[in-house]
Structure formats: structure tokens, C-alpha cells
């Protein structure tokens, strides 16, 4: 059995999320369908994480096992040709037998792209806000998330991940033309965690909730707070880091 590692990008606009779902178009479903056509065996893809509907990926990593002895260059070519235009295969290689796309990952990072210039051409790829945001002020709101915390109040229910403790390693806010990009790196993320973190930060910045709302949500994980989700279209799974990097 070969353990095959693949790296790829996708435009999440036309998918019903990442995870395989019956009768729905998903990223995992499209890749597994192509692999079945090529290898003539059922493939169960293991991935570094799952993205919500409408979320994109600049760098997603998965692995799968196959008993089929096919040269890697031919498999790369066949899979690239089979995949739809909104999934781009970047790399395909044989990995160690113990490599696991999810459990072997050391860090994951996301990028969130914001614009205050309305455009019909970027509406699927950036989140539009009506008023310009001061990057330094917004960073001061976000830096409260730095470090290890109980993120119970910043997740949607997901039985697969019971432990709500996560550690945020870095947060960067970079100004770009008529907008800004936010980069957040952590050991792992909970379901919709990034979207709730940013959605809550927007509420604080625009003074729709009290200024210490984030501190309260982190310090009182057993108390329920309203969840504000930032739009998915500006969110990108940006990079997955492994030991070999």
C-alpha cells in the first residue's frame, strides 16, 4: 500500500463545503470521485482540515492509501486532467506510511481578505465592509486572541472535536489597496472558529457590542454568548506546516 500526499488549491464558491456529503458537490467528493475513476478503487481522503461552504484554499493537504501501482507522474497527470477547474492540483508525492494530513500537521494558517471598495468581480473572494477599518485599531482587538485559550464560545458544534483548547501563534494585519488582509496561525482551529473570531472582532470595532466582549467570551467558556460569523467568501485556508518544513 502506498501513502499518497497531495497538495492543492480550490475556489470554494461553488462547493457546499469541503467534507463529502451525499448528493452535494463538495471538494472532498470531487477529488475522491476522480481518484475512483483513475484507480478503480474506493478512496477515503484524509485532510488537514475542513472548510465551510464558500471558503477557499490556497494550500490544502490530503493523503490517501492505494494498492494500485501507478507511477506518480502518471497519477498526477490523470488527476489534474480529471479535476474540475475550481480545484488545482499543486503536488503529488509518496509519503511515509505514518504520515497523516491532519495529525502530522504542526500549524495551520488562514488569510481573511477585506475590502471597502465594492466590486461585483471580487464579491466571492473578499469580504466587503462599508466603512474603512483602521488596521492598527483592529489588530489591538485581535491580539487578545494570542496564546492558548478555551475557544468554546468561538465554535459551532462539532462532535469530531471535543477539546476546545487551541493556541494562536501569530496574528498579522496587512494593509493592501482599498482593504486589508488578516493572517492567523494556530496549532489547529475548531469548526468556524476563524469566522466567529473575526465576526466578533467586527462587532467590537464598530461598537455594536461592549469593548471587552472577546475577553468575556474567552474567560467564561461555560456561558453562552451570541455568535457572529464573518462572511465566508473572504476566508482562505492559507498554509499547512509539517515537520519537514
UniProtKB/TrEMBL annotation:
Active site: 52 (nucleophile)
Domain Pseudouridine synthase I TruA alpha/beta residue range list: 8-103, 144-243
GO BP term, example: tRNA pseudouridine synthesis
Domain of life: Bacteria
Residues noted as binding substrate in the record, renumbered to the chain: 110
Key words of the record: Isomerase, tRNA processing
Pfam family, one: PseudoU_synth_1
Entry EC number(s): 5.4.99.12
Keyword tRNA processing: yes
Molecular function (Gene Ontology), one example: tRNA pseudouridine(38-40) synthase activity
InterPro entries: PsdUridine_synth_cat_dom_sf, PsdUridine_synth_TruA, PsdUridine_synth_TruA_a/b_dom, PsdUridine_synth_TruA_C, TruA/RsuA/RluB/E/F_N
Reactions the enzyme catalyzes: uridine(38/39/40) in tRNA = pseudouridine(38/39/40) in tRNA
Keyword Plastid: no
Enzyme class, first EC level, given as a word: isomerase
Cited function: Formation of pseudouridine at positions 38, 39 and 40 in the anticodon stem and loop of transfer RNAs.
Family the entry assigns: Belongs to the tRNA pseudouridine synthase TruA family.
Subunit (UniProt): Homodimer.
Protein name from the UniProt record: tRNA pseudouridine synthase A
Amino acid at each position: 500500500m502506498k501513502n499518497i500526499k497531495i497538495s492543492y488549491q480550490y475556489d470554494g464558491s461553488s462547493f457546499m463545503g469541503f467534507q463529502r456529503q451525499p448528493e452535494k458537490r463538495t471538494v472532498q467528493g470531487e477529488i475522491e470521485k476522480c481518484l475512483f475513476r483513475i484507480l478503480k478503487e474506493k478512496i477515503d481522503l484524509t485532510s488537514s482540515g475542513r472548510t465551510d461552504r464558500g471558503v477557499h484554499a490556497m494550500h490544502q493537504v490530503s493523503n490517501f492509501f492505494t494498492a494500485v501501482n501507478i507511477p506518480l507522474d502518471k497519477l498526477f497527470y490523470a488527476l489534474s486532467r480529471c479535476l474540475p477547474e475550481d480545484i488545482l492540483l499543486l503536488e503529488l508525492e509518496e509519503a511515509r506510511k505514518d504520515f497523516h494530513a491532519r495529525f502530522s500537521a504542526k500549524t495551520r494558517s488562514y488569510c481573511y481578505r477585506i475590502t471597502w471598495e465594492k466590486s461585483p468581480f471580487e464579491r466571492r473572494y473578499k469580504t466587503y465592509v462599508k466603512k474603512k477599518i483602521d488596521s492598527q485599531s483592529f489588530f489591538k482587538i485581535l491580539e487578545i486572541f494570542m496564546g492558548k485559550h478555551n475557544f468554546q464560545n468561538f465554535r459551532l458544534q462539532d462532535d469530531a472535536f471535543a477539546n476546545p483548547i487551541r493556541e494562536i501563534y501569530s496574528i498579522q494585519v496587512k494593509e493592501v489597496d482599498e482593504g486589508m488582509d488578516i493572517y492567523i496561525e494556530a496549532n489547529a482551529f475548531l469548526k468556524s472558529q476563524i469566522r466567529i473570531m473575526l465576526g466578533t472582532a467586527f462587532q467590537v470595532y464598530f461598537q455594536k457590542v461592549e469593548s471587552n466582549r472577546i475577553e468575556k467570551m474567552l474567560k467564561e467558556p461555560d456561558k453562552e454568548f451570541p455568535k457572529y460569523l464573518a462572511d465566508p467568501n473572504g476566508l482562505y485556508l492559507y498554509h499547512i506546516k509539517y515537520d519537514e518544513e
